[in-house]
Amino acid sequence: MRVVPMQWFRSCATGLLLALCLGIAFPDRAQAGEASDWGANFMPNVRVVDQDGRELRFYDDVIKGRIVVINFVYTVCRDMCPMVTARLALLQDKLGDIVGRDIFFVSISIDPVRDTPEQLKLFADSFRIGPGWTFLTGTVEDINVIRKKLGERSRKLTEHRSELLLGNDRIGAWGRDSAFADLEVLASNVRDMDPAWLYRHREVLDVMPKPEIAVAEIPGQTLFVKTCGSCHTVGKGQRVGPDLAGLFTRRDRSWIKGYMMKPDVMRAQGDPAALELAKIYRAVRMPNLGLSEDDAADLLQYLELQTANV
Question: CA end-to-end span of the chain, whole Å?
Answer without folding.
Answer: 50
